[in-house]
Amino acid sequence: MSDLIKLLPDNVANQIAAGEVVQRPASAVKELLENAIDSGATKIDLIIKDAGKTLIQVVDNGCGMTETDARMCFERHATSKISDAKDLFAIRTKGFRGEALASIAAIAQVELQTKPHDAEIGTQIIIEGSKIIKQEPVACPSGTKFTVKNLFFNVPARRNFLKSNAVETKHIVDEFERVALVHYDIHFTMHHNENEVFNLPATTLRQRILGVFGKRMNERLVPVEQKTNVLDVSGYIIKPEFAKRTRGEQFFFVNKRFIKSTYLNHAVKSAYDNLIRKEQHPTYFLFLEVAPDFIDINIHPTKTEIKFEDERTVYAIIKSAVKNSLGKYNIAPSIDFDQEEAFEFVPKKSGESIKVPTVTIDTNYNPFKNTTSKPTSGGSSYSSNFKMPKSIGFDQEDVDANLDFLSSIEETSTTVKSAELFNQEEEEATEEIVPKENKQKFYQLNSKYILTQVRSGLLIIDQQRAHERVLFEQFLKQIEKQQTETQKLLFPEQIELNSADFALLSETLEDLNKIGFEISEFGKNTLVVNGVPVGIASTEVQKILENLLEELKHNTNQTNTNYQQKLSILLAKSSAIKRGRKMENEEMEHLFNELFACSSPYFSPTGKPVIIKLDDKELDQRFER
To answer: Which of 69, 122, 217, 354 is the most buried (most CB within 10 A)?
Structure first.
C-alpha cells in the first residue's frame, strides 16, 4: 500500500490559512493597518476602490524594512514580534501570528514598496498567488506602501460570496474606526473611490471620538476612570437619554486591541439598570489596561476574542466603574410621563393653607329608588339613577372610572381573543367591524387606545401600531410602484454627518427619493432636505435619518426586498402618532377606516397585535361573577 499523507504545497497551505485570516476585504485592511501601527508610524493612509475588491492600499511612515525583511515577511509564521512560546504571554503588539501577509499574498496581487529611514534606496516586491513575480531596488519614501489588487482573483468562489459594495465598505469602515479610535495619537486618513471619508489628525481621545462619530457626540459623552490592582478602566460612556434601540457604537479595547465580549457588554448594560429600557442599548468607548499575563489573546484567528484569567472580577470592576461615572456626574434618565390632567399639581400660593379632604356618606341613599342624592359640601356622591347605556356609547368619565377593569381584561384577552379574531377569513373579519348604528362612535382611553363598538362586542385599537400599519403599507406601495407624493419644505434643512455616515447614507439617497424625499448632497459630509413624503412632519427628518442610519449599520445583510420593507417599517415607526397624543373623533374615525382598508390590519409591521376584541359573551360572563 502506497503512502497517503503528503505535505501540502506552500501556496495551497497559504490559501487555507487565508480562509481563516482573510474572510473579506475588511480582514486585509485590519491586518495591514495593525502592521503599520506596529512599525511606529505617526501617519497612516488607507486607500480603497470598489469596497476593497479592486484595490486596498496602506501607506505609512513607519520604520520600513530591509531587503531581507521585505522578502521574509511573506513567509508563513514569520514575525518580528515573538521568538519563543513565553512571548505569547507578554504580547503588547498587534500582528504576531505571522500568517497575515502570507495569506493575503496567496489570494491577491500584491505589491510592496518599503525603505528604512537610514537607507538610501528601498525594495519593491510583486507577488501573485504566492509566486514572486519581481523583486528589485526602487526609489521610494521612507516607510512602507502595501498595495493589494484584485482580492480573491484566483479563488472565484470566495469572491462570489462577498456582499455588495455598500456592505463591504461598511465592514472596512468598522475596522478603520476600531483602529483609529484606540490609536488617537496617530494621524489617519481614509479614501474610497478617490473621495475622502476620514481625515483624523493626532489628538485626544474625546476629539478622536468626535472626529469619527460627529460633533453631536460631544454633549452625550460621560468620562469613565477607574484604577485597581487588577486592571485600569478609562474612556467614555453615553448618557442614558441617548441610548438606542439598536446596538450602537460599543467598543471594548484591551491593551489597545479591539475585542468583542457579550459578557463584558452585559456588565455595562447592567450598570444602566433603571436608567434605560430593556430594549435599549448604551454606547460606550471603554479602554482596559491589564497585565499581559492576565489574558490570553491567542484563542481566535482574528484576535477579536480574548480570555481573562478572572472574568468575574473584570465584570465587577467594569460595572462599578460605569455606575460610579453615572452617579458622579449626576446622570439621571429623562422621564416622560403620560400624565392625565387630573394628576397635575398646582403649586400652593404663598400663605395658603392646605385643606384636608373629607368624605361624607349619604345614609339616605337607596339604590332601588329612582332619585338623585344631592352632594353635600366637602364631599362627593354619585347619581343613584345611573343606568348602563344601551350601546357602548359611554362618555369619557365612564372610561376613566373603568380604567382598572379594562387594564385587567386586556392582559387576559390579548392572546386568546385576538387569535380568535385574527384567524377568521378576511370576509368575515370585514363584516364583523360593521357597526350597529349608522354613525360609528369612537372613544379614546388614556390617550393610547381607541375604543369602538362592533356587532358582537368591543374593539380596542392601539393607536400607534394602527398608524404604523397604515403608513407601512403606504410607503411600501410607493417604493414598489415608484409613485411618490412629496411636500416641499418651506425652509430646506441641512444635515451634517460624519464621514462614515455620509458615505453610507449617500448610497441610500436613490431609494429615499423614490418614496417622496428630496435629499441631495450639499458639500462635504452635508445633505440638504428639500422635501419629505406627505404625512411626515419636517421636524422628524433629522430623527428619521438617524434611525435609518442605525438600521443600515446593524442590518446590512438584507436582500433588496427585505431592505425595502425595513425602510418602510422605519419610516412608519418614525412618522406614526405616538401613545399619549389625544385624538379628536374625526381623527380616530379616519384612522379606523384607513386601518381596515389595509391588507393586514390586525398586526403591526413588526408583528405585534393592533386590535383586541372583547365579545358580548365574555363581557356578560365577567359581570355575572
So the answer is: 122
Q: Which three cell numbers stand for residue 553?
A: 449599520
Spatial separation of the C-alpha atoms in residues 290 and 89, rounded to whole Å:
12
Please give the CATH superfamily to which domain 10-202 belongs.
Answer: Histidine kinase-like ATPase, C-terminal domain (3.30.565.10)
Placement of cell 418614525 in the chain: 574
**552: phi then psi, degrees, rounded to nearest 5:** -65, -35
**Residue 57: in which H helix or E strand, if any?**
strand 55-60
Handedness of CA 569, 268, 264, 169 (dihedral sign): positive
394-625: CATH topology: Ribosomal Protein S8; Chain: A, domain 1 (3.30.1370)
Pairwise CA distance, residues 222 & 275, whole Å: 14
Distance CA 25, CA 516 (A): 35
Q: Going by DSSP bridges, is the β-strand pair 109-115/221-227 parallel, antiparallel, or unpaired?
A: unpaired
Number of H helices, E strands in the chain: 19, 22
pLDDT tens sequence across 358-408 = 666 666 766 556 544 444 444 433 333 333 333 333 444 444 444 443 444
Q: Strand, coil or helix: what is 625?
A: coil
Q: Quick one: cell of 535?
A: 404625512
pTM of the model as a whole: 0.67
Q: How far apart are CA 458 and CA 262, in angstroms?
A: 45
Interatomic CA distance for residues 112 and 126, integer angstroms = 7
Angle at 566 between CA 561 and CA 572, to 5 degrees: 130
**pLDDT value of residue 119:** 93
pLDDT tier at 479, thresholds 50, 70, 90? confident
Coil, strand or helix at 483: coil
What's the rounded Cα separation, in Å, for the pair 66 and 112?
12
d(CA 282, CA 279): 10
Percent of the chain with pLDDT over 90: 33
Show the cell assigned to 231.
486592571
Name the CATH code of domain 206-328 (choices 3.30.230.10, 3.30.1490.100, 3.90.76.10, 1.20.140.10).
Answer: 3.30.230.10
Q: Are 576 and 537 in contact (CB under 8 A)?
A: no
What was the pLDDT predicted at 330?
64
